[in-house]
Amino acid sequence: MLIMPKGPYLYLATFLLVSFSTLSAKESNSKDSKQTGELKSEIKAYILHHLEDSHDFNLLSYKDKATNKKVHIGIPLPVILWDDGLKVFSSSQLKHGKKVVQLGENHYKLYHGKIYKTDAQGTITYNNHHHPTNIKPIDFSITKNVISILFTSLLMFVLFRGLAQSYKKNGLIAKGVGRFFEPIVLYVRDEIAIPNIGEKHHRRFMGYLLTLFFFVWFLNLLGLTPLGINVTGNIAITFCLALITFVITTLVGKKYYWKHIFWMPGVPWPMKIILAPIELLGLIIKPFSLMIRLYANISAGHIVLMSLIALIFIFKNWIGSSLSFVLAFSISIIEILVALLQAYIFTVLSALYFGFAVEEHNENEDH
Amino acid sequence: MEKLINEFSFGLFFWQLFIFIGLVLLLRKFAWKPILDAVNERETSIKDAMNSAEEAKKEIASIQEDNQKVLKEARAEREALLKEARINGADIVAQAKAEAKAEADKIIAQAQESIQNEKRTALNELKNQVAQISLDIAEKVIDSELDSKEKQSKLVNQLISDASL
Prior knowledge:
The complex is a heterodimer of chains A (367) and B (165).
Chain A: H1 7-27, H2 30-51, E1 56-64, E2 69-76, E3 78-82, E4 86-90, E5 101-103, E6 106-111, E7 114-118, E8 138-139, H3 144-169, H4 178-197, H5 206-223, H6 235-252, H7 255-262, H8 269-315, H9 318-358
Antiparallel strand pairs in A: 1-2, 3-4, 3-8, 5-6, 6-7
Helix pairs in contact in A: 1-8, 2-8, 3-4, 3-5, 4-5, 4-9, 5-9, 6-8, 6-9, 8-9
Chain B: H1 2-7, H2 10-145, H3 149-162
């Protein structure tokens, strides 16, 4: 239900994955089908793993044929834990969950992307739902996503600072790479901020809206690179962005905005009482939908794209694999569009909510 | 939903909040404000330039109108001057004519008077001469004719018949 916006995508992907793979399974013998089954579960794990954040920046993983062990090539990142004091160590010590890290008297182990406090042997205890019951220290690690956010922030700062400075140097005419972004900045101002917020108030929201738009857009695009980054498809990120929009909306809300929520003008009083809780619920639903929309769209996009790419390896024949390639290629192009579209939608809706909050009306005016 | 909550990482949320708010504040100060200010300034200057161009156009139009007006006035003045000159000229001519006529009249009058005088003098002289000649003739006639009585009476008769009373 939560991934409704991209529901058709998911169904399509599952359908393709299932139908094509059964097709290929029928053609091959039993030994092959067993292999294909293994491959499929491996792919599924890989995709799910990719969607999640990671404690190290993994660039490449392969199975060493000689030792039959998985080899990971990547950059280790710092792990920062809060467990009665700050604990810092390199993620390379975790060995992708194969090793228990000892810090003083405490032992930590990576299990399914999360760090748990264990005993010296690294025992994980489970509850009925097969969830680990070990203590989870608060994890402030500089993960792959944090690195991506930092990289994007730095890129944006350099890019837009350069644009700002080029105006000073060139007599109000943009120069350099920033020049490409000037029309987009103006688009955000003229087509997103002003129509939704109004000429009078839009200026004080421009800083947030512009940063939001480019931040989401750049991270969406970064997610399409082969680096395997999935930042905007992470619920913590979209929650944070939606929360900021919600907090700003609530803080700037004027009398008219609150009146519309608690005591809707222009309707009979029994309706006012009914409308108040609905409006109050709407207050939460609006940012919640922002959070889910971005998360679901980007996640679904990644799942579909990776599934289609994986199909190439499942088919292992000329027709199926090339068909999968064509599909993956077209979906990639659509995803580039979706990257921009989702950034646009998030920004437009944020601007719209700010517009509601700062709206002013004459008392005499009809509603 | 449970999966979402399970997936939620507080650490990532913390870093995202921290970095994003920092980014908004930094970009606002160092990028968005200068960019939007520069763009606004540029838009204002373009608007101003267009306005001043419009004004200059209007000014030129008004100058042209003024020129036209001045030209028209000059033409009218010229016309008026020409008209006046024409009237003046006619006056002068008329006056000159009148003066000449008066002079001529005067000269003619003088001439007539002098002719009259001459005539009168000439007549008087002639009269005198005629009288003298008459007297001479009469003397001679009387001398020659009136030697006979008959002739005398005849003359007297003739004179009497001539002098019709």
